[in-house]
Design brief:
1% strand, 304 residues, elongated, 2 strands, two-stranded antiparallel sheet, 2 domains, Serine Threonine Protein Phosphatase 5, Tetratricopeptide repeat
C-alpha cells in the first residue's frame, strides 16, 4: 500500500508564505540590479562615453523593459548624436511605460520636435541670421536668390534659434517700414515676408495682403500652406467668415481633415469628430506633457 501524504492547512500557509517571500526577494534583487546598472550607465554618460553608456542602458532595459529613465537616457544620447527622430521615439516610449515622466519630458519633446521640423532649412544651410544681415544691408538681389531656393519658407520664417531678440526686432521694424513689398518682391519673397509678419504678430493685415497677391501664382502644396496661414491671420484679426473660406480653400489643396477640424473647432467652439480624427488624435496624444534623472538642455543633456 502506497503511503498517503496529508497536506495540512498549516503546511499550505507555510508554502504560500515561502513562495511570496521568494517572489519578493526576486523582485527586490532585480530592482537593485537595475539601479546598479543604471548608476553605472550614468557615470559613463557623465564621462562622455556615450557608446558604452548606451550599451549599459540596454542592459538595464534587458532586466526591466519598463524602466522609464533608461528610455529617457537613450533619447538623450540620440539627441546628442543629432538623431532627433530616434530621440523622440525613446522619449515617447519613456512616457508610455512611466506616465509620471510626461510633465518633465514635455519641453524636451518640444525641443526635439522643433529640431526635426527645422531639419530642411538646416540641411539647406539657411537661417534668419542670413536674412537679417542681407535685409540690414539692403541687398535685395541676394535676399531674392536666398528665398527662391527650394525649401519650406514657413520654417525659415519661424526660425528664432539663429537670431537674437534685438536682431529680430530690427528686422521686424525694417520689414514693417517697407510694406509695399508686393510691388518689388518675387512671389516666394512676398510669401516669406507674409509668414514672417504673421509668426511675429505684426502688421497682420499687411501679411494677408501679401498672401492674396501671391496665391494666384502658387502651386498646390505652397498654395495650401498659404491659405492655411491666411486663415489663421483672419482668425487673429476677427474675420471669422474669411478664415473659414481660407481653410476651405486650403482643404481643396490638400489640407488634412484633422487639421481642418482643429481650425474649425477654434472658430465654432466644438470639435468635428470622426473616427479617423480620433485615431490620429490618440496617436498624437503621446506627445508630452517628476523630475527625471536625465534631462536635455540646449547643449549636452545632463544626467543626475
Amino acid at each position: 500500500m502506497k503511503p498517503h501524504f496529508i497536506v495540512s492547512p498549516i503546511n499550505i500557509v507555510v508554502i504560500l508564505i515561502l513562495t511570496c517571500s521568494c517572489s519578493s526577494i526576486r523582485t527586490e534583487f532585480f530592482r537593485e540590479e537595475t539601479k546598479y546598472q543604471y548608476n553605472f550607465a550614468r557615470q559613463l554618460y557623465k564621462q562622455g562615453e556615450y557608446g558604452s553608456a548606451k550599451a549599459s542602458i540596454k542592459s538595464v532595459l534587458a532586466l526591466d523593459p519598463d524602466y522609464g529613465p533608461a528610455h529617457v537616457a537613450l533619447g538623450n544620447i540620440a539627441f546628442i548624436k543629432a538623431d532627433y527622430n530616434a530621440a523622440l521615439t525613446h522619449y515617447k516610449t519613456a512616457i508610455r511605460v512611466d506616465s509620471e515622466l510626461e510633465a518633465a519630458l514635455r519641453p524636451v519633446i518640444q525641443a526635439t520636435t522643433l529640431r526635426i521640423a527645422r531639419a530642411p532649412i538646416e540641411k539647406a544651410g539657411f537661417s534668419m541670421r542670413q536674412v537679417h544681415r542681407l535685409m540690414m544691408a539692403g541687398d535685395q538681389s541676394k535676399i531674392e536668390a536666398l528665398l527662391n531656393e527650394d525649401f519650406p519658407l514657413e520654417l525659415l520664417a519661424q526660425d528664432t534659434l539663429s537670431i537674437t531678440p534685438s536682431e529680430l526686432g530690427e528686422l521686424s521694424r525694417r520689414v514693417a517700414a517697407n510694406l509695399k513689398l508686393d510691388n518689388i518682391w518675387s512671389v516666394r519673397c512676398r510669401l516669406f515676408w507674409a509668414y514672417f509678419l504673421f509668426y511675429n504678430h505684426i502688421e497682420l493685415d499687411s501679411a494677408a495682403v501679401l498672401i492674396y497677391s501671391a496665391v494666384p501664382e502658387l502651386e498646390n502644396k505652397e498654395r495650401r500652406i498659404a491659405y492655411e496661414v491666411l486663415g489663421q491671420i483672419h482668425e487673429k484679426v476677427g474675420d471669422l467668415n474669411l478664415a473659414v473660406d481660407a481653410y476651405v480653400l486650403a482643404k481643396k489643396d490638400g489640407l488634412s481633415d484633422l487639421r481642418l477640424s482643429h481650425h474649425l473647432s477654434r472658430i465654432y467652439g466644438s470639435s468635428v469628430p470622426n473616427s479617423e480624427n480620433e485615431k490620429q488624435r490618440s496617436s498624437d496624444s503621446s506627445t508630452p506633457t517628476l523630475t527625471i534623472e536625465i534631462s536635455v538642455p540646449t547643449k549636452r543633456p545632463m544626467i543626475y
